[in-house]
Amino acid sequence: MTTDAATAPMAQGVRHTGLVVRSLARSLEFYRDLLGLRELSRAVETGPFIEALVGLPEAELEWVKLRAEDGTLVELLQYRSHLRPGDGAGEVCATGRVHLAFTVRDVDALHRALAERGLVCKHPPLLSADGRCKVMYCSDPDNVDLEFVEQVPPPQGPATAGGV
Where are the beta strands (DSSP E) in 31-124? Predict the structure, then answer.
């Protein structure tokens, strides 16, 4: 079977699984210290990008990315601004809420394809604050949160005068 750009699968792979947790410290004791996942990165996010991405005004969250031996990534998210105890249902910030993230080739094309099928995304693709990714949140037919991430190549421009 041959594929071209028009028929190639949109999803290139599972990027990570994100878990909303009540306490990063407690969850790191479990996932990192007990299960042995290795901490890769950590950040606190606030501002227009994260507010638009998760659909919560004044959102502030801290996340930690962990890697298993096989390369699988788990993202732990603690909402500082909208902590909601829960059972995984309800708002995006509810404790226990899960999302699955995919790396995709063209998030804009995927946004159009989803709209053509009547699926509504939380927002159009957004450029991340660091400019390295275009990101979009949607829900699957059973209301499971999905994140789609397209890596953005660094800008190519003329060399600056001085040749550095």
Answer: 38-46, 60-67, 73-79, 98-104
Domain that holds residue 53: 11-151
Closest CA to 27 of 89, 99, 77: 77
Under 8 Å between Cβ of 76 and 63 = yes
**Is 156 inside any structural domain?**
no
Q: At 147, which CATH number?
A: 3.10.180.10
> What's the pLDDT tens digit per position in 84-112?
655 455 677 777 778 878 888 899 998 99
Candidates 161, 147, 110; CA nearest to 14 is: 147
This prediction has a pTM of: 0.62
